[in-house]
Amino acid sequence: MIHTAGCLIIGDEVLGGKFAKYCFLLGINLKKIEVIGDDEAEIGEATKRMSEKYDFVVTSHDDITYESIAKAFGLSLRLHEGAFQRMKALAKAKPPQKNFSWDTPSPALDAKLRMVKLPVDESRDEKSQALLVDENLWVPISVVNGNVHILPGVPNLFTQLLDGLKPFLIPRLESPEGKGVYRVIFSTPMPESEVAGFLSKLAAKVEPRGVKVGSYPRWGKKRNSVTLVGKDKEYLESLVSEVEKGVDGIRVENEEDGDEDSDEEETK
Prior knowledge:
four-stranded antiparallel β-sheet; six-stranded mixed β-sheet; 23% strand
């Protein structure tokens, strides 16, 4: 079962936010996002550490990631024939690359082959170690040690492949339906100090049901935010009127939505 997750980002912090949202929606407890440099030893050490600690690990990859992770786990690199054939098939739909042939050795061909030479563990089922999750992409998700998933560092590909990975993850989630975590946001004109007593009592009441209560001052704004986060959507909905009354606020979709009411009141 997947309960916890870690994310290793090599060089692009933007990807961490995408993964955080992904885990939130699937109800996976994201424990750590770590950004490291393009260094073989650092990549290997961080990947092994996260693999030992978390159920589900995602790392972005660059030119040396496959080699670094393979070395760290004592694995060899092998050409993934399925990904290579799909790469060639999809390339035919694009203008041909000048002075390039799939059948003639060249630096360009070597570079393409390097992208589909993946870490392979002889003790594991080979099919489970490389996932082709999108028929429109040749890019595989390389899976190492059963829980490390290596994705490209290009943001749009990273997101697209994460979406394609969902069917492989959902059966292993605490909620097999893939229902994630829900958040209800309230906008209140009251300062945090004035709602603290009510929120403390509320937190004690809802904690056994797996609901977390949050209060967030919004510096420079006239209204603050209160949130309820949990997996039981029906129970969260049942708390809405109680919280609105307790914080003298309103439910909103986004934190800034309540600001419009404050501006209108000032112009009256």
